[in-house]
Design brief:
Length: about 240
Amino acid sequence: MTPRVTLAIAARVLVQLRRDHRTLAIMLVLPCLLITLLWWMFDDLPGSTFDRIGPALLAMFPFVVMFLITSVTTLRERSGGTLERLLAMPMGKLDFLFGYAVAFGLVAAVQSALAVALSVGVLDLTIEGPVWLLTVVAIVDAVLGTALGLFVSAFARTEFQAVQFMPAVVIPQILLCGLFVPRSALPDVLGAISDVLPLSYAVDAMEHLTRSTTTGEVWVDLAVVAAYAVAGLALGAGTLRRRSP
């Protein structure tokens, strides 16, 4: 992997995104709109429901949005022949994948900062830990979505098939991450499955920041999520095809 080539790929992707206003709106605005919608739904209910589910939402929405956008965009590059032309140049697969990860990671940083600022500053989500660390967790989680999206795009032939991976890869993680039922209350088998799903650790990190000012557990969870993201990129490099069959 060559840093110069990786950064060139990242710059190319960012230029494309800047011209695609619809995709930019989905990536930057949609998570904020969804979080606001759920806050509005629970605002008049007794108790602090939004304080309970808000941390999980901050982990979930960037992950889901980046997974969808990345998997579809990468497949479009391959099916359109762009990837084949790029890989014909002196560029490795890791250059391509990490270039995409850098580009989408930068967009994820903006997306996560907007979502955290909205949730904490406007919607009054209670946070005991540092807000900057909350933003870092959201960014790493979005990068995880990017890495998994790059990985699964290798197994799809059409954009519709790429979207179909969401029920298999994303929805089980949403169901078992602790958003609906605390992970400690899950049946043993489901709890064991939850323990190997990366979104569970992202949600745990967010919840630690809402309950305590200590950050030791947050860094452990963050390291696990980052490791999954790196593994996803490595697997993506091993399965990346030049073009759809």
